[in-house]
């Protein structure tokens, strides 16, 4: 006998769970309430567009206010409001959202809606002991007052409210008094609401008068309703992008190198601007500066796992309603949409670099020293990117001339081949210390590359694997003397296990920027294509040497036993 049934939820139990565990960050309640107000406003605009709402829209600003004495925080909008029935449906039933119904109905003309899961509203109970809703629908129906003090029981009654729209009144509880502080709210608005599409007003603009700041009569709008990434690239100038960069990173002193304006609507929706920051060699990179938005609501500035590792070094914004943002990070990383988006971004970045390389090679070369760390990092960590970037990544020689891999091959083909037909790329990483060797090599008619970047050692290792018959040899190693004549020591193939240990070892050598899987082989730590076999002392010496070469970075790590002599 089969029994069928429906799993029941006991609201008495579910409430404390929602209150405690729904979101890890209490502060996001404000984002949720304001995004509901924005949704309600956007819906009103949509209804007005399709002629279903014929009245005056009036001032559609969303207003946030705090009353410290009454311990309340209020968010008011002039959106569509709710009828008693809608409150019954969408508020009294947890996890029911009106977003899908609305989008289904107004597919063609709907403005973007933030809500989705029907959970956001209840996040208010993380900070409030009591929540009141006073709402009046755009439909000609009485206003409703709903009130709940954090257990499943609520009250609902008709009330007086002449204006269309909704006030959400949060009675902030004892532990969360910080949310009654003006400064705190300002910083949250700055973080989450800076680019929302509807004006958000908090307090009055101030002016300097008689030695202090005083409020004026003018409302203070905290957001930019039409951020640059939402605008059409064709109408934008370089200065606009530079100004927007300063808006995103007020503390940054440098102009970005260049930028990519992302604008995709098929097969997923994605807009944004990615900036390549200017990096002086050997300066600690700042990662995770990209901000992720969902319909202009700030979601996170930790994009690890969402964009490919090497792109976390870029700056800028990504906005997509298709990234399921309200869910956990581990889910995000396995989501297929997210994977597609991430591949797409990688492709766009490669396209842009290739375009600049082809159209403005001189400019590209000028920027290469700043740029190359991204490109090398990308090539080391993303197969797909390697294939693209191999065409435009550059090698710089001692005369500061730049060559593509293909071009450079032709430069040394005739003169720098050993007896096995392997091309030998000579390089230096310290002009001052190695100048006698550099001069000697040049005297022999050889060309010497400059390889002093943070990732050059690893990159050369990668190129040795990828390019046929290619070896990188440091200019002061003894092989240079006998470049053509000397019999090579045979190389030892590493077993898989050894390679695995190697990768681990390399990872521990490379500072945080390069902590992903490199498929680097130990020979890139040694030289001349031989797997390294050295004493622990020698190993430590080299680590010190590498650290000295790269000011501000410490190389450390332990030599796996099997590589010790
Ligand atoms: P979601 O935003 O994901 O739909 P919420 O829990 O945040 O879920 O809100 C549930 C529903 O309550 C919304 O879908 C909307 O119908 C209604 N709602 C909440 N706030 C407002 C508001 N300020 N104006 C009109 N409707 C609102
Ligand atoms: Mg919501």
UniProtKB/TrEMBL annotation:
Matches recorded under InterPro entries: HATPase_C_sf, HATPase_dom, Heat_shock_protein_90_CS, HSP90_C, Hsp90_fam, Hsp90_N, Ribosomal_Su5_D2-typ_SF
SUPFAM superfamilies named among the record's database cross-references: ATPase domain of HSP90 chaperone/DNA topoisomerase II/histidine kinase (SSF55874), Ribosomal protein S5 domain 2-like (SSF54211)
Binding site for ATP: 32, 36, 77, 82, 166, 329
Signal peptide: none
Family: Belongs to the heat shock protein 90 family.
Cited NCBIfam families: PRK05218.1 (NF003555)
Protein name stated in the entry: Chaperone protein HtpG
